[in-house]
Amino acid sequence: MGYNMELSRTMWRVIFAGVLRDGDLLEMVKEVRALRAEGPIASPNGLVDMTGLSEIILTFETLSSIGTEARGYSLHDKIKIAVITNSPAQFGYARMFQTLLNHGQIDLQVFYEDELAALGWLSK
Question: What is the value of pTM for the model shown?
Answer without folding.
Answer: 0.91
